[in-house]
Amino acid sequence: MRAKPKPQSRRRCMIAAAVSICMAVSSGASFPLPAAEADSAAFRAGAAKVEIKTPLGMPIVGNWDSPPATNIHDELYVRCLLLDDGHTRIAFAICDNVGIPREVFDAARKLIDAETDVDAKNVLMSATHTHSGVSARDFRMVDGAQILSAYQQLVARRIADAVATAEQRLQPAQIGWGSAAVPSEVHNRRWYVDDEKLLSNPFGGVDQVRMNPPRGNDALVKPAGPTDPEVSFISVQTRDGQPLALLANYSLHYVGGVPTGDISADYFAAFSERIGGLLGVADADSDFVGIMTNGTSGDINNIPFREKNLPPKKAYERIDEVSKLVAEEVASASRSVAYHNQISLAAANAELKLAMRKPDPEMLRYFASLAGAEGDSASTHRFAKIYASRVSRLQEGPDEVSILLQAFRIGDLGVMSIPFEVFAETGLDLKKRSPFDDSFTIELANGSYGYLPTPAQHKLGGYETWMGTNRVQLDASEKISDVLLSLSKQIQSP
Q1: What keywords sit in the KW lines (predicted)?
Q2: Using CA atoms, how far apart are residues 229 and 302, in angstroms rounded to an integer?
Q3: Of 59, 447, 465, 492, which residue is the least packed, with the fewest Cβ within 10 Å?
């Protein structure tokens, strides 16, 4: 598989400064040494994998039901990659979890600041979005807990431990980046269908598109959005060319096929465990760390909806197939990567305030009616009462939320992060408009605030747009993109 070609055309300019009156943005940036000083500073990197030690008995969160964990098929981890150009350190701390509140990440930052020489504001923390793990979320629609649960405290502790361990392993290194294309494993899960029975929603209305329609159904018309087949990756080696770490990014929600009650980190972990061997890591006890991050996959999954008669798969079979293919393509593409003994790093972050969605009187009246006998009728949507509860919590909750956005520069590679489940078209747009020729976005980073449809997708309806699944103002994706592109522009030049 080829390394990523340069785009034929690129917008090299952007409107950098303006921040809308409905936003409050504060940013801090870290910049590299001047060239003369940077030349004398050795680029270093360290990587670590720290087991979270998930307890059995806790609910597995990822579907409508949350069965207790009864078996650990594969343990959940925090995987960390730390980069150091001699002046600036940046780190990725990727957690096997469905989604992690900002308060947990903030607790980890306090530990990192207290226990390491890594500036915690330069650590990108994210969840992979496995649907077969114990969750670090809580019941609130917007994070705001002052007291963390025991498991949340454990996750924060393990994040800090992973960063500290990676710091202890810092060594002279070389770094490169590239991408592969794996279009076969990503499918848009939002579909136009011509059967109105498939389009009802919990609010008593009818949508224009359906999430996860019945596979092979004759009512399928076309997907409602694009996919992003690119697998971006950062490859790090020791100075003598031995693999040290590889961090990849693919816009695939998750794979699934995990038995009820099993703890599993899904294909994210399977890729991470497989990629080392494909890169030539022979020792199972090696300190090599593979990492798979989630791209912009809020409307993407692994189901080929046009196919009617696919044979059933055994448990974990699809996870194995997908992780094998993606790892093989990345390993192949990595062979053409150019490695650098010295690069400069930069990081910038911003706080962005977003308005929370609130129900109107008509919606409140509709859900109030569900408390009566008609609420149990056959015509009532099966998730109506769930959304009645979610809408109620939004009504009682805060009017706005402040989110953390980050942008990194690694040489001339750009990395952005968003604390939502982001639609593929937003990720593609960020790649197109980025000031960097190569860039990617990591979702569910530094928080977990639900889905982030574009304004155009909001008009179509569907699960991801429902109030309670999506919680913030309808143009939030555009405001977030504007801030991220501004941050990227700030750090574009060494």
Answers
A1: Signal
A2: 12
A3: 59
